[in-house]
Amino acid sequence: MMKKQGGGAAGRKKNDTINSVYPIVDLVTRCNQKCLFCSNLPDNIPSAPDQIKKLLASGADTLRIGLWEPTLSDKLPDLVRFARKSGFEKVLLRTNGVRLSDLAFTRSLLDAGVTTFHVNFPSHLPALSDRITQSKGSYLRRLKGMENIVKLGGEKTMCILMVITTLNYDTMEEYASFVAEKFPGVLNVLFNMVCILGMVPKRLSLVPRFEKVGPHLAAAARVCDKNDIKYIVDDIPICFMKGFEHASIDRYMMLNQKNIQIDKVKPPVCSGCALGGECAGIRPQYLDLYGAGELRPVLKGRAPAAGKKR
Fold it and tell me: Can you say whether the dihedral through the CA atoms of 38, 43, 44, 47 is positive or negative?
């Protein structure tokens, strides 16, 4: 989790990137899927309505909605409308996209002021998607929801998220090809390593090793580059991202936002790495699970390959 430290609106220039660490609120503590990789806990508490005003006062210009599944709340359109009227320039909705298969509902959210939909799309393969989400038939509804977003708001209103697990990491290249064919103008694709939080500590077999993910992630990155698709990578150290280091969200934060704290650690093997000033390290839960033996510090300067800017 990345936390914004200090800051605020005072003295901030119009185009400062401080709010790339977006505040988040939630409306419900339930979901219409049972994703194996879910990092939420049942005791998460929905955000109070006045929290939006507090977040706005902190200097944020972008609001994220959704840790669980916000589209299950009847209050969602009103919350979005309130957030925009309160002064948020952008509202990002995190969703599994299933309810967006209802065209009228999708339109109501766009009319209320949602600017970007972050859609959890665990696999382009129907059977695998339904297995990961433990929700038979959800793939087709999610895909319809994504099509509705594009139909009503355009491709630039949608980001597509793939949570990387042992069940899907070896399909990443084909996944990227599917996105390039089906949604070529998508705002970006996010490749996020599964976090050992929520239900995952009881399902550690879902967590792949970086060294196994690396080649498949690189292949997916090449597909994205070839098709002019922006992509972002989270929770993968950049020593496993040779040639596409520019896609690391941690690297972006560290180079552009000096006042943030990232909850990751660097084991002793990382000392002296030439990329130390650009890499946040790894999550402590991953280190506890697999150790640091697979990490390969870069001993000589390695200039990040040119690529799409975030």
Answer: positive
Name every residue whose Cβ is closer than 8 Å to that of residue 22 and which is 6 or more positions away in sequence.
60, 62, 63, 64, 92
Count other C-beta atoms under 10 Å from residue 255's C-beta: 12
Alpha carbon of residue 293 to chain centroid: 27
C-alpha to C-alpha distances, 287 to 111, 193, 248, 299, nearest whole angstrom: 44, 14, 19, 21
Query: Under a CB-based contact definition with an 8 Å cutoff, are residues 60 and 83 in contact?
Result: no
Q: How are beta strands 188-193 and 158-164 bridged, if at all? A: parallel
- Pick left, alpha or beta for residue 113 (phi over 0 → left; psi -120 to 50 → alpha; otherwise beta): left
**In degrees rounded to 5, what are phi and psi of residue 166?**
-65, -15
Is residue 39 within 8 A of residue 207, CB to CB? The reply is: no
pTM of the model: 0.86
Which one is predicted more confidently, 234 or 253? 234
DSSP 114: -
Of 55, 58, 45, 69, the C-alpha closest to 8 is: 58
Angle between helices 172-182 and 210-226 (to 10 degrees): 20
Domains, the chain, with CATH or none: 2-290 (3.20.20.70)
Residue type, 147: E
Distance (Å, whole) CA 1 – CA 263: 6
Tell how strand 260-262 and strand 2-4 pair up: antiparallel
What pLDDT, in 10s, does the model give residues 242-289? 999 999 998 988 888 755 667 899 999 999 899 988 899 999 999 999
Could you tell me the two tokens for 166?
A: 């042992």
d(CA 207, CA 169): 10
| Helical residues (DSSP H) of 183-237, grouped into ranges | 210-226
Q: For residues 231 and 189, is the Cβ–Cβ distance under 8 A?
A: yes
Distance CA 188, CA 231 (A): 5
Token couple for 209: 């090793």
